[in-house]
């Protein structure tokens, strides 16, 4: 999905008695279906919503309230996303899988939208929320060491990541596309959290093979004949075993190759100094069939390559 125009939704547009119900609708539309309640009838809240590629960035400013994602809601709308909540002002209590994370300014936590959770804000609050596909983080079996746990802004990796997430939020609405920055921050988040999660010796071996495979794929994306068989041969393992390793990470080899090619195309198309044609960009990254490239790109990002290019330049 390309960067889209900012949406700002606020309870100021409704009466006080309808504000909580309206807020429930707003946050369910912005993120995933959620329930909400507030201790005071005069609740007020505002959310600013931006899409940066596959990442949704929202800035939430609201009075004391609580939001919940229940099993029934998940069953009706499973989506495969992680959220990262960065506390900017006030405090928040996140509860997921029996773990409690109290967040203060500068702290953040990553949580899974396909598992029940509660966010309780006991005072006026401001939070930056980033929602992105689970495939962007390579946590593997170590996910339980990270999800639903507070990462302090003054500890590693929080001291590295919190300023970058703040910068990303501040760059929204300014000149230039923040999409490359969003991609880079998520890549760094993935690397640092995977290190924090730890792994058993067997898992380390598996993860090392997956990283080698992904590195090989990135180095050969421009080759039209890049395929799972070629990657497996380069790593001296069977294609079946390679497919098994990628399946454990939540994706297939061919799907990963296609995603990485489209991501590189998207980055090129967002560059203001691009001189190549749209079809030439696809061919550069191993997608020489213009019609196939256009269909795949639109399926991934909601716009054709030409529409994306025009929107990025505007």
Automatic annotation (TrEMBL):
Signal peptide: none annotated. Keywords: DNA-binding, Transcription, Transcription regulation. It comes from the Bacteria. Transmembrane segments: none annotated. The keyword Protein transport does not apply. SMART domains: HTH_ARAC. Residues 211-311 form the HTH araC/xylS-type domain. Pfam families: AraC_binding_2 (PF14525), HTH_18 (PF12833). This is AraC-like DNA-binding protein.
